[in-house]
Design goal:
Blueprint: H1 11-17, E1 18-25, E2 33-39, E3 51-55, H2 73-78, E4 81-85, H3 93-109, E5 121-126, H4 128-139, E6 155-161, H5 168-176, H6 181-189, H7 200-204, H8 208-211, E7 219-224, H9 236-242, E8 250-254, H10 263-278
Parallel strand pairs: 3-4, 3-5, 5-6, 6-7, 7-8
Antiparallel strand pairs: 1-2, 2-4
Helix pairs in contact: 3-4, 5-6
GO molecular function: hydrolase activity
Domain BD-FAE-like: 35-238
Protein name: BD-FAE-like domain-containing protein
Length: 280
């Protein structure tokens, strides 16, 4: 059965359908933890037996997996297996990006404890988390990328809410020049190995646009036209490439949308996300 046609579970049904394991350590740092929501019915779904891996936002600096569960609730209501991931904060984009690969490889190495379908992984996130997921997805078939995924892991799709896909120098500039002190702190911490603005050759290494090719997984991108943190101009080139194949990719541009989708915008987005996944 297609996911879009699966009736949403009640909170009681969700609780009954899942085995939940919280704060599983996938690395040696205390921030490297994940929550696993194993669905009893997911293995019966065949080609729709996805493992959704979600990463929270917060500028690689703030927040926590427990604070953005609104993004995983729609999957739980459908009985989809979900992994909700924390990653190392305040140590820059490079380290945060490594953590997703490390977490996936950990799950692959511990299949007995966590029997998840890693051949149909959907990487999703909001803001910083969506950027990390997008980068790992587009580098999965690039032999030059220094952090390879373990054999048997396949990225089936990406669902990106407001996550940078290009123009990281533009994003860095927004934060570095922001009037709010915490935003400036985030800007300074994006690339801690550099002083001041990171050189373009550094920022490009962490832009999904740099690695994109037509063989990459399908993308669903939610983008707000009034995003003041990841400006719309940073999406232009990447989105143009995605739109070369409308059958494969979906771009949901919300002209009045801000950086963070409202509850209604999120609800409307998932009405398109499940049909997007059903085409895969």
């Amino acid at each position: 059965m297609k996911l879009a046609a699966v009736a949403d579970k009640t909170p009681e049904q969700v609780q009954a359908a899942y085995t939940v394991t919280k704060d599983v350590p996938y690395g040696t740092d205390r921030e490297q933890t994940l929550d696993v929501y194993r669905s009893a019915e997911a293995p019966k779904r065949g080609a729709k037996n996805y493992t959704v891996v979600f990463l929270h936002g917060g500028g690689y600096y703030l927040s926590d997996k427990a604070k953005e569960e609104r993004y995983i609730q729609p999957y739980l209501k459908k009985g989809v297996t979900v992994v909700n991931l924390n990653y190392r904060l305040k140590r820059g984009i490079p380290m945060a990006t490594e953590d997703l690969t490390q977490a996936l490889n950990f799950l692959a190495a511990h299949r007995d404890a966590y029997p998840l379908n890693l051949e149909r992984v959907v990487l999703t996130g909001f803001s910083a988390g969506a950027h990390i997921g997008s980068l790992v997805a587009v580098t999965a078939n690039d032999p030059t990328y220094p952090y390879p995924l373990a054999p048997g892991i396949r990225i089936a799709a990406v669902v990106n809410f407001s996550g940078p896909v290009g123009g990281l120098d533009v994003v860095e500039n927004v934060f570095m020049n922001h009037p709010m002190p915490v935003m400036k702190e985030i800007g300074l911490a994006l690339f801690p190995e550099t002083t001041g603005y990171a050189p373009k050759e550094v920022t490009r290494k962490y832009e999904p646009l740099t690695y994109w090719d037509p063989q990459d997984p399908p993308f669903f991108i939610w983008q707000g036209g009034k995003d003041d943190q990841v400006p719309p101009v940073t999406f232009t080139e990447f989105v143009a490439r995605l739109q070369q194949n409308h059958q494969k990719n979906t771009v949901l541009f919300v002209p009045e949308g801000n950086h963070s989708p409202s509850a209604r915008e999120l609800e409307e987005a998932y009405k398109q996300i499940f049909p997007f996944l059903d085409k895969k």
